[in-house]
Write a structure and sequence with these properties.
5 helices; single chain; globular; mainly alpha
Amino acid sequence: RGIGLVIGGLVRTLEYVPVGHPDRAYYENAFIKISAKLKSLQKQDGSWAMSLLAGEKHAAPETSGTGFFTYGLAWGVKNGLLDKDEYWSTIARGWQVMNNAIHPDGKLGWVQGVNAAPGKVKYDDSQLYGVGAYLLAGSVIYDLAKAQEQKK
């Protein structure tokens, strides 16, 4: 999730640093490099591990990091920094994990708690920041779907 906060922060920074600003290229390059690495670290189930380099070691999905990563990648596609053909399946798989984590009563599960390091996560674990990540990802995916619909 820590890197999820970084990618979310880069998105917010890029929203405020105008095109043509001398520092814009630095932030865009950082965003693109991190996005490529995240794409390569996505687990088979579509989530990202609580500790990114742990990979498949932790079988359970974790939704706060997955939500932030899905948000960042979708934002990159929406804003032309990432190629849709290259990133769409990564985004769609992450979004599917998020939707599968919604309980029948609407609660988002599989959210790692506040910890100093990655820990175990269970279906019933939830936190507000996980819900926030879900909503951020959903808002950009909605925008992408709406734009695609308008092209038809």
